[in-house]
Amino acid sequence: MSTRTPETGIVATVDVRDLSTVGWGPLRAMFPHFAEEIELGRYLKRLLATDQTHAVRVQLHRDQDGRLSTHVYDIYRLDETDHPPT
Predict the structure, then answer these.
(1) Cα separation, 62 vs 23, whole angstroms
(2) DSSP secondary structure letters along 6-47
(3) Nearby residues of 76 by Cβ (< 8 Å), 6 or more positions away
(4) pLDDT digits over 69-79, tens only?
(5) Are 13 and 72 within 8 A, CB to CB?
């Protein structure tokens, strides 16, 4: 089993603060990390439901100054030949 992560390219850079599939109201202000985690999960679920993407890797986006963002993620499509279905 290979330990490398084969990537076929970046699919998206997502700012989870901009995602809003649920009417959060004041809950988003009170629990922002929870709301962002749910929104990212829903985004990934829709992305993986397409025929174009079967596996992804999610990592925090690195700003130009080298610091990791707390709310922006890079989504990479993985090469499905190295990740056969179970």
Answers:
(1) 29
(2) -EEEEEEEEEGGG---S--THHHHH-HHHHHHHHHHHHHHHH
(3) 7, 8, 9, 10, 11, 56, 57, 58, 59
(4) 999 999 999 87
(5) yes
Quote the CA–CA distance of 81 and 86 in Å, as a whole number. 12
Please give the Cα distance from 21 to 43 (Å, whole number): 9
Cut 0.85: pTM above it: no
Per-residue model confidence as pLDDT tens digits over 43-67: 999 999 987 788 899 999 999 999 9
Q: Which two tokens stand for residue 40?
A: 């990212």
